[in-house]
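Revision sheet: structure tokens.
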Amino acid sequence: MAGVSAEALRLRLAGLAATGQGDLRALVGEFRRSEVLVPVVDGSLLSTRTGDVRWLFAFTDDAALERFARARGEAVPDRVPVHGARLLDQVAPRTGGPTGIAVDAGSPAGMVLPPVAGIVPDGAVPDTGGTAPDTGGTAPDTGGTAPDTGGTAPDTGGTAPDAPGADAGARNAGIRGAGA
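Predicted:
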């Protein structure tokens, strides 16, 4: 994988998980500088929806992605390396609604970057009219188990006709999978 590795991010996440304390700004900064692996299914980014919020998955290494796939009982999907800044600044706003990032879902040191001002651009922040967004009661579970997707393919929010099971919002975000 070319570019900046996610080793520093992985270490920061492990420290946060071990102590329960950390600097969120520094963590977001480390994510932005890191090149993470984003799983791709049927040519689109793997995501799930919880309430009104779409969650894109990003992993700091192949081992974390493999644990996630095993926990879901699925084959390890294709993946593309993407800098965290691109996910937050370019991809999240183009998915068609509030979008956050689930980092290392299924890992003990997993975390979420919610769709709030200061983390993602305004286009990926829910328009709540002064109330909290409907997240279905919870963000994706990143503490030791994979997010519950109901045992199905990624939530599509409306299947694109050219790719069964593909996430049309993520497809339009401009990142294509290997071989796509």
